[in-house]
Amino acid sequence: MSGTATGNFGQARRGLTSLRVLLAVALLGALTSCQLLGDGPNVGPVAPGTLRPNLAADIGAREHPRVVATYGGVYKEAGAERAVASVVGRLVEASEDPSQSYRITILNSPAINAFALPGGYLYVTRGLLALANDTSELAAVLAHEMAHVTASHAIKRQQRAEARELADRILTNVVRDTEQAKAAMASSQLSFARFSQVQELEADAIGVKTLAKAGFDPYAAARFLESMAAYAKYQSAQEDAPSAPDFLSSHPSTPERLSIATRAAREIGSPGIGERDRSRYLSALNGMLFGDDPSEGFVRGRTFLHKSLGIGFSVPSGYIMENSPEAVLASNAAGTAMRFDGANLSNFEDLKDYMNSGWINGLLPQSVRETTINGLPGVIGSAVTQGWSFRIAVLRIGQTGYRFIFASRAPDNAFESQFQQTITSFQQLSPTERARLQPLRIKIVEARAGDTAQKLALGMRGVDSSRRLHFFNVLNGFSGNQTIPAGTAIKLVVD
């Protein structure tokens, strides 16, 4: 959540829509996103036109500033830059088109993501660098993205999207049977989604071959896919729930990608071949920023703290919290969602007037009442719309209103209790508390004789104590409370 903490909920931040989703519209047709975890822009239709020479480079140059701005800017840190630079030249030489030039940018985002723009613009987030455990895993990601560029996937997807858009328009204008038209359009959508999936699988296969040709471990691609799946499960509030495949996703399910990546590696040789280089790679990450950028505030387990705004609050047990530039989001296994953000109240002397000013659809006027929480004036209310029930609170500090919105399709006593527990935890931080807040960073250590995952996990920060071992294992590619061989390079997250 940004340090300004203000905005118009009904205009700039409609409902629970995030800026990342809105960006998907702005970048339609330009970006081949690998959306490894979390939201990311996707390819879609643009205005039909004739492809011309240098079109790919023009698209990349035009969209590059938008991508950088959306993902928190460029992350500049010597170690991370060395880690990326050490593999690029080898991969380009081994790629299907060694003459293709690339511009690789590290984005200042904790999301696990990598993607390509036409014209050789490649992007990896610092979150992805932190999840990788050796040079070959980073190389696997970059080789996959280079495959998208050399196979002209973005341009091909744009052409297919234009054809689909035209076909849908014809169906809408010509076919009188509405249900028949909807069925045909749904079939077209499935076809386009599978077309995108096939491109991802093609890039996986090409990437593994490039990886091996460059001298890296070809099994790194499968290994990193497993790490991504483990991280996704760790992030989810429903960790034990089976994952249902989303057939409209532009990306195949992880098991399908894992199978193809493993098969492609086996065609090259048995496990144990190629360079991995864990120690050197991890040493380059030592000191790298981890998680939220300090300007956006910090998530520490179930607590959000913002140094410059001087505020903090906690969500109840069972909630998983996520920070983004425009809001703090949280959800639990019961399907309850929470959003926290800020609004400018300079035009409102009375908080009840603000609550009734029209920024909430379905507000129940009789539910609006004033309150005081930890010495701060506030107002709370309820709303019902489109099958959702909402509990809303606005707490005031100066001219800023801090807004909590809880949403559920099946509100019960627990829903109300969790709302109350969260808003009553909101408080202003003391100068001492603000001074102690430091960002999380990666620290690389070597395991000593007799060290176990459980013992090393005690050094992890920024996560509930009950989840430290799980977090440690996901970040380092381990499982259970295994004994770690002496001398193994280990990632810790510290403040």
In words, what does this structure look like?
The chain has 495 residues and is of the alpha+beta class. The chain folds into 3 domains: 259 residues, no CATH class; 137 residues, Mog1/PsbP, alpha/beta/alpha sandwich (Protein Transport Mog1p, Chain A), CATH 3.40.1000; 48 residues. Helices cover 39% and strands 19% of the residues. It has a 7-stranded antiparallel beta sheet. Strands 1-3-4-2 form a 4-stranded mixed beta sheet. Helix 5 crosses helix 7 and helix 6 runs antiparallel to helix 7. The chain is globular and about 70 Å long.
- The number of distinct β-strands equals 18
- Biggest beta sheet summary: 7 strands, antiparallel
Strand order of the largest sheet: 9-10-11-15-14-13-12
Shape summary: globular
Structural class category? alpha+beta
What integer value in Å does the Rg equal?
A: 24 Å
Mean pLDDT score:
80
- How many domains? The number is 3
Report the sheet-strand fraction. Answer: 15-25%
Overall helicity: 25-40%
N/C terminus separation: 19 Å
Spans with pLDDT under 50 lasting ≥5 residues? 6-33, 35-53, 153-157, 159-164, 180-195, 238-251
Number of helices: 15
